[in-house]
Amino acid sequence: MTWLYGPALLAMFGTGLPIAIALLLCGAIGVVVAGVPLGIVAQRMVFGLDSFTLIAIPLFLLMGNLMNATGVTHRIFDFAIAMVGHWRAGLCQVNIFGSVVFSGMSGSALADAAGMGAVEIRAMVAAGYRPSYAAAMSAVSATLGPVIPPSIAAVLYAFIADVSVGRMFLGGVVPGLMMTAVMMAIVHVKAGKGDYPEHPRASWPARGRATVAALPALVAPVLLIGGMRSGIFTPTEVAAVGVLYAVLLGLVYWRETDPRAMLEACRDTALSTGAIMLIVAAAHVFAWILARDRIPQQLTEAIIRFGLEPWQLLLVVNVLLLLLGMVLDTTGIMILVTPVIVPSIVKLGIDPVHFGTVMIVNMMIGLLTPPVGMALFVVSNLAKVPVEAVARECVPFIIGLIGVLILITYIPATVLWLPDLVYGPAR
């Protein structure tokens, strides 16, 4: 009976049932079959949300939405144009560079796609780029948000896998820079084969003005990560400090933010938080019934019996995640897979921080793959183009990102070097 949970859950997903409802139904059915009082469902849902670490998720969402509402995205975009706009296919490089900067504040791919993407797509189309290509570039660059710290996905994984949030944050730095380099290289190569609009080189005084205008946004990641590492505040408190910083920028420093935009940012945050937390609560019920029936332990024992080497297990899990990324969203995949597979990877000596970063990069590729690539839907709506057209433009970048995924999967030092340098080797 226990091995029917997975197929039953996938069948519910196939009917179009929301992830939270499917998880809750499957967990409740498991509780009834196990002969446990049904009241345990509500108890486990409440217990699943009773975590100080989870407070960071709505706060990071709010910080990203407030940064969009306060006009930070426009200043970052102007700064990126001044710095790299004159490169080959300049606005494409600006798109990527701007996302690197914004990812240090939003922690969310969809916040990046919706915020920076709205500015970037409009500018690229006005400069003569195809709307589908402009949308694809915004979707691709948005995948940097959850990899480069701070990251909502890293917080969620750290909560589920019981690992250090700080180590997860730092583990994403090098992979995020590798993804950036690959994206920029692909743009450079593609630009040599096509007629891409050119942007004039900015003068040094113009670069200085753009830097000064964007400086409050540029120092935000340094303040947040530096404060966390120095012990001034915890990784969870980083998000609260970020929200306060965004409010001060909008209402005190720049003084040009529409209060209605701030309220809209709070509304969007509340809706997103409700959706995520409902999934987390429902997943806790499902995870509890799996743990009660020893599914993770049975899976670990099966892997050991099969004699899988660590590299073979990582290959199997990566392929599974890539396939799941085509039909499920990021939060659903992480909540489903993490509690089941982490005991197995730890048993085989794979560092859970390394695996978590691999998992996040893998799921970012999923944001670009139909039929449930959420980033594709966000940018196609902004650009008013079909999702299929955007997906086709993303193909070269997906191939490049899979190359990065392979490298970080089989060269753990690409992930663990910085966390080990700052925090010391994991025990």
Tell me the span between the first and last alpha carbons: 37 Å
- Label the structural class: mainly alpha
Q: Note the main sheet.
A: none
Q: What is the number of beta strands? A: 0
Poorly predicted regions: none
Summarize the amount of helix as a percent range: over 70%
The tally of structural domains comes to 1
Instruction: Determine the mean pLDDT.
Output: 84
Q: With helices defined by DSSP (H or I, 4 residues minimum), what is the helix count?
A: 22
Describe the overall structure.
The protein is mainly α and 427 residues long. The chain has one domain (25-423). 78% of the residues lie in helices and 0% in strands. The chain is built from 22 helices and no strands. The chain has helices at residues 5-14, 19-34, 39-49, 56-69, 72-84, 90-106, 109-127, 131-142, 152-161, 165-171, 173-191, 204-218, 220-230, 235-253, 259-292, 295-306, 310-324, 330-347, 352-366, 374-383, 387-410, 413-423. Helix 11 crosses helix 21 (387-410) and helix 13 (220-230) packs antiparallel against helix 14. The two termini are 37 Å apart. The model has no long low-confidence stretch (mean pLDDT 84).
